[in-house]
Amino acid sequence: MSTHTNHAAVSHLEQVEAPGHMLTKAAARTLAVLRYATGFVFLWAFADKLFGLGYATPSARAWINGGSPTKGFLNSVDVGPLQGFFHTIAGTWYANWFFMLGLLGIGIALIAGVGTRIAAVSGALMMAFMWLAEFPIAQHTAAGAPSGSSNPLTDYHVVYAIVMVVIALTYAGQTWGLGKLWAKLPFVQRNRWLI
User: Exposed end of the chain (fewer CB within 10 Å): N or C?
Assistant: First the structure.
C-alpha cells in the first residue's frame, strides 16, 4: 500500500462518523459522554482554582484573589525522588500559568471535541507529573509516616491519562462534538497532528 493510500485511509477514518467498522453508535455516544465528563473534570478544576468555589479551593486562596493554584499541592509533596523539584517550582508564576492554561486548554478541547490528540498528550503529561508528585509507589513519606497509597502503580492519574488517549484514538470528538468540522479545516488538513 502506498504512502498516499495510507494517508487517504487514515484521513477517511478521521472524517467518517464513528459508527461502522470501528464502533457502534451506542459506543460512539458513550465515548462522547466520557469525553464530556473528562473535559468537565479539567474545566471544574480550572474554575475552582481560579475563583475559589469552595470545594478544593476556598475563596480566600483563589487565583484571582492572589492565591496560587500550585503552591499548596506542590509544597505538600512529601514522597518520591522529585520532592525537591516540586517544592522549588511550587507557586512560581510559570508553574501556575502552565498548570492553569493546561487545565483550561485540555478541558475546552475535550468538551468541544477538537484537538483531542494535543489534549491527550498534554493531559497525559500533566497526569504523569501529578502521579510523580503523589508518587503512589512509596509506602512511607519522607518523615516515615504511612503514605496512604492504596495502589502502587495505577491510580486516578493513570486512568485519566488512558481515558484521554482512548478519546483521541477513537475520534470521540466527532460524536456530539466539533471534531468533524475541525478535521475539515485547511490548517488541520495540512497538520494532521492537530486532530
Answer: N
CA 113 – CA 64 distance, rounded (Å)? 28
pLDDT tens column, 47-89: 999 999 999 999 999 999 999 999 999 999 999 999 999 999 9
Q: Among all chains, which residue has been given the C-alpha cell 517550582?
A: 89
Per the listing, cell 512529601 goes with 78
Q: How far apart are CA 152 and CA 146, in angstroms?
A: 13
Q: Which residue has the cell 475541525?
A: 182
Which amino acid, one-letter code, is at 180?
A: K
Q: Name the CA dihedral angle for 112, 195, 118, 178, rounded to a multiple of 10 degrees.
A: 0
Task: Report the alpha-carbon distance of residue 101 to residue 92 in Å, rounded.
Answer: 14
What ranges in 16-56 are assigned the alpha helix state H?
A: 25-51
Report the C-alpha gap between 53 and 51 in whole angstroms.
6
DSSP 85-150: HHHHHTT-HHHHHHHHHHHHHHHHHHHHT-SHHHHHHHHHHHHHHHHHHH-TT-SB-TTSSB---S
